[in-house]
Amino acid sequence: MTERTSHRGLVVVAIMASMAMIAIEATIVSTAMPQIAAQLGQINLYSWVFSAFLLTQTATTVVFGKLADIYGRKPMILIGIAIFLLASVLAGFAWSMPSMIAFRLLQGAGAGAIQPVAMTVVADLFPGNQRGKVQGYLASVWALSAVVGPLLGSLIIHNLPWAWVFWINVPVGLFAASTFFLFLREEKRTRVVSIDVLGASLFAVSISALMIALTEMESAISGQAIGALAIFAAALGAFIWQERRAEAPMIAPDLWLKRPIAFANLTVFFASMAIMGLTTFLPMYVQTVLNRSPLVAGFALTMLLLGWPCGATIASRQFTRFGLRPLMVTGSLLIPLGTFLFILLRPTSSAVLAGAGSLIMGFGMGLLNISALILTQESVGANERGSATASNVFSRNLGSTLGAAVLGAVLTYGLAHVANGQAITPEQIRALLNGTGAAISGVEEVRHALQHALHATFIAMLLIAVLIIPACLAVPSTQLHGPAPQEA
């Protein structure tokens, strides 16, 4: 038994702890933000507390993945945890909404290092035919965090200062960092590579501008969105020019354009777009159109969290038997099938139908995501594994953001062009969600308009989900690496 394999269990625990910080952050903060915003003021900046985190996380993922290939996984993940914890402490001391947004930007940068590098460490420690089991554990961490986060956020808000929503990360992060420091062993890297600083900067600017444009366009096309798109186009053009001339480009075209990586990333991109519609709009449909309680809406969405780890667990145990590509294709068929059930929803439908669609989509996502990640990692050597893993994470994050923008635009258009010509206001929707819909005039007309607008959104989801199938069929089969040294 080598020293490296003897410590694998402890390192996996540290990976799960570090991933739990990121996974739980979204749900715990979303639960607490209404109370935080009430104290900090400037409610008009509310959505940017969430957008800022995702913006820097997406923009830095690829950069840290590349740096992990050059300098090693251990220093990069320790730097990521340090940034994340520093930002968490500062966010607890935020004195205004702009300061909160600034600290969330920093926190997102830390997450952009932790997530891809931690997943790369798993790929380093476990060969392909053993890795899926650990990836199944990580999928369970995300599912559990989605359930525990709102409960924990509610407990903190009612019993402690809201700062503990962020400070709770400190002990978890310190445990993970100390475990990585003591037990993560990796070979010293002797590669001497010039860092493409200009390429990294241009990439960060272009992706940040794109994220800002997509965030602004969720409600309507504005001057800020058009300006951000112009910056994105200019920065992207400069980035492509720089990558063609750089000695060691930040994003190597020969890696990103490899057929297995390109199409595997395309599948998770479309899948993330579709799943964003489920998590965003299904609870709204159940509460407003089906007129069910928030508890029932939560149950319908929880079926996603049940199906996802189940699919991931099955994929992790069976891909050595059936192969990665067949499992991806199966997942690509299940996701549109689950989405199709949402199109069948009517105001008189049972919430069980919504839960069934959520369960099937989640199961398909579990099969697809695990298989696509392992296939991506198996398509490159160890010296490019960080960049390949980061490309997969980046595709997921970008798909989620674009999905929110596109499907949000479909809903907004539907609500603004109802049959009687009278647009539905956000206040009317909020009243239905808060259970005070009876107090507004024309409540049934509002429900009817929402039903048509959300139905159109589900159709758009299905069209996106169908695109996963040809992308999956274009993925070639990949041979898995042999087993790792066995522990004594």
CATH architect. name of the largest domain: Up-down Bundle
Distance between the termini: 5 Å
Count of individual helical segments:
19
Cα radius of gyration in angstroms: 22 Å
The H-and-E topology, N to C, reads as: HHHHHHHHHHHHHHHHHHH
Strand content: under 5%
Tell how many strands the DSSP assignment holds: 0
**What about the largest sheet?**
none
Mean pLDDT: 81
Structural class: mainly alpha
- Oligomeric state of the chains? single chain
CATH superfamily of the largest domain: MFS general substrate transporter like domains
Query: What is the highest CATH level, the class of the largest domain?
Result: Mainly Alpha
* Domain count: 3
Shape: globular
Model regions low in confidence, pLDDT < 50 over at least 5 residues: 482-488
CATH topology of the largest domain: Growth Hormone, Chain: A
What does this structure look like?
This protein has 3 domains: 1-192, MFS general substrate transporter like domains (Growth Hormone, Chain: A), CATH 1.20.1250; 194-247; 252-477, Growth Hormone, Chain: A. The chain contains 19 helices and no strands. It has helices spanning 3-6, 8-40, 48-71, 73-92, 97-125, 128-159, 164-167, 169-183, 197-216, 223-245, 253-256, 259-289, 294-322, 324-343, 351-378, 385-416, 426-433, 443-466, 468-473. Helix 2 (8-40) runs antiparallel to helix 8, helix 12 packs antiparallel against helix 13 (294-322) and helix 15 packs antiparallel against helix 16.
